[in-house]
Amino acid sequence: MFSMDRPIAGDRSRSALRLTCALVVLLVLTCIAGLAVGAAGTSLWSALGDLTAGRELSLRDKVVLWEIRAPRVLMGVLVGASLAVSGAVLQGLFRNPLADPGIVGVSAGASLGAVAAIVLGASLPFATVLGTWLVPVAAFLGAWCATLLLYRIATRAGRTSVATMLLAGIALTALAMALTGLLVYMADDAQLRDFTFWNMGTLAGATWSKISVAALLILLPLSAAPFLASGLNGLALGEAAASHIGIPVQRLKFGAILIVAAATGAAVAVSGGIGFVGIVVPHLLRLASGPDHRFLLPNAALLGASLLLMADLLSRMIIAPAELPIGIITAILGGPFFLFILLRQRGIVDL
Amino acid sequence: MLDARNVSARQGRKHILHDISFSAQPGQVSAIVGPSGAGKSTFLKAMTGDLAYSGSITLNGQDIAQARLADLARIRAVLSQSTPMAFPFTVIEVVRLGLINSPGQDHIAQSALARVGLTGFEGRFYQELSGGEQQRVQLARILAQVWRPLGDDGVPSWLFLDEPVSSLDIGHQLQVMRIVRDFASAGGGVVMVMHDLNLTAMSADKVLLLKDGRAIDQGNPSTVFRNDQLSHAYECDLFVNRTPSTYAFILPQSAAPS
Ligand SMILES: Nc1ncnc2c1ncn2[C@@H]1O[C@H](COP(=O)(O)OP(=O)(O)O)[C@@H](O)[C@H]1O
Ligand SMILES: [Mg+2]
Prior knowledge:
The complex is a heterodimer. Chain A is mainly alpha-helical. Chain A is built from 17 helices and two strands. In chain A, helix 5 packs antiparallel against helix 7 (134-154). The longest helix of chain A has 36 residues, at 59-94. The termini of chain A are far apart. Chain B has one domain: 3-Layer(aba) Sandwich (Rossmann fold). In chain B, a hairpin with a 2-residue loop joins strand 4 and strand 5.
């Protein structure tokens, strides 16, 4: 109809859709780069040439491409998407662009859960039933408790105080880290090795079996998130006004907290602490095409995945053939970015 | 119709509203007045389902305490005293939030903006508008939500407004009063908290006068606005006069030249 032909000023839905297309292309390109670049001398292109020519791949190429690089790329996509989407959902819930799972203590809660599962694992009930699911599920529970607690503390009568949210985040993070430290102190040698391996915060350990668990835990909340989109848009008006336009606010908040906890928990469980993706990605997207969550959430998944793959490439290239933990890269790039947003927002952060 | 019976309510442990009974008819503009802190906003919150209360409140015969949020949203829209927004939404995006449960009706947003005189503001950022402009954008949003004052089934829609003109200049105050009058004339109901007694006398078919959480009087402005009653409610000497066109207008005595 009319609105289809002539865009209305201020309606950014079409530029957001164009951005979605561009981000799909970007993601495909970064995935290819992730498969092509690596310490081993394997070339994606010659392997592809071999395949199209009907030649059998060498065992070495097969292992490098299929057992090392492919799971790593897929893990990067899953983790990047889930970090960015949890950030966007958390920010919508708190009505504030500074909410990031890593900053407000949700990731620390997830870490505590994961470490508790690693150290206390065997003595926990259901441990044997859960098997490989134990660590991700525990991380999810830790993240869930942290998010609930944070929401209780920082939000009064539907209003979130930014100062309280950030300070409560510091306190929750400190508390969770102290408890984590306590658990590590109690750990025996084998558990310590598991913990160190997990805590490195890289995508390096990605395997297909790890991915099969992570994929389910991450794809579930990611595919549920779009259902919250228009509710989160309404929530930008405040809780009262949101309920006046018919949004079931309590259910929305419950769903948002569950999604953030599941996505963050799963991401932390498989990749340790990777910070700032959740704050940088939604912020860039809001600048580019506005805060409408119907576009923000899928675009955040795409850009988060691409950015994390790029960070992973950097981490593999800077000191090649060795690797930097990817968490260091995202923190070095994301930290100043966070400060930049904080300074621009100072008016509302003032205590 | 809106029917509130023996409504009492608390904020925290403090009793704010005491046994208020009040009714408003569709087709009319009803106003709630009273001094600051009298409980006007609190009473409006009870009627919009934002506050637990004792007593009963029905809207179009439906108990609002039992009604589903989505059903209520279809028949009534609410404008708060101020609506700070998170995130940089544009004006058109804000107005479309009123249409969140009316898929395919996005074109109404522009008509609603035109209604409040903000055509051309579609692409502006909400946060960069003045307080008065923001208030009018929110008014456009709630007008879009209940765009038709009277549904096909003859069910009236309602506007609940908390001080809709508090940050507006006199021209836009009159514009908003015209909008609510048109809404009522088309069969809808309007309940609004008002600060300005003179504007209320000009615009309302019915007023409820509150003081300290109690209803002092209600009815036609010309009967409710009496010297003794207003002076008592506002604790200052007020003198009610009549314009030639029979509207009441209220003069504060201490400020009037003697
Ligand atoms: N959230 C709250 N907690 C405690 N007291 C409140 C709250 N909101 C309002 N009140 C008190 O209720 C009384 C009525 O407030 P309100 O309805 O906002 O008055 P007004 O008539 O000015 O709109 C005031 O005394 C106010 O202090
Ligand atoms: Mg008030």
